[in-house]
Amino acid sequence: MTLEEKVAMCHAQSKFSSPGVPRLGIPEIWMTDGPHGIREEVFWDEWNGAKWTNDSCTAFPALTCLAASFNPEISYLYGKSIGEEARYRNKAVLLGPGVNIYRTPLNGRNFEYMGEDPYLSSRMVVPYVQAVQQNGVAACVKHFALNNQEKDRMAINVEVSDRALYEIYLPAFKAAVLEGKAWSIMGAYNQFRGQHCCHNDLLLNKILKNDWQFDGAVISDWGGVHNTEQSVYNGLDLEMGTSTDGLTTDGTSPYSEYYLANPYLQGLKSGKYKTTELDQKVTRLLRMIFRTTMAANRPFGKFVSPEHSEAARKIAEQGIVLLKNDKQTLPIPVGKYKKIAVIGDNATRSLVIGGGSSSLKVAYEVSPLEGLKAKYGAETITFSKGYSSDLNDKKPESKLIADSLHNAAIETVRNADAVIFVGGLNKNWFQDSEGDDRQSMSLPYNQDKLIDALMSVNKNLTVILCSGNAVEMPWLSQVPALVQAWYLGSEAGNAIASIISGEVNPSGKLPFSFPKKIEDNAAHSFGKLSYPGIEKKQEYLEDILVGYRWFDTKKITPLFPFGYGLSYTSFEYGKIVTDKKVYEQSDAIKVSFTLKNTGKTDGYEIAQVYASQPKASVIRPIKELKAFKKTFLKAGETQTIELEVNVKDLAFYNDKTQSWVVEPGGFVLCNAASSAEIKSKVSITVK
Ligand code: BGC
Question: What is the DSSP letter of 225?
Answer without folding.
Answer: -
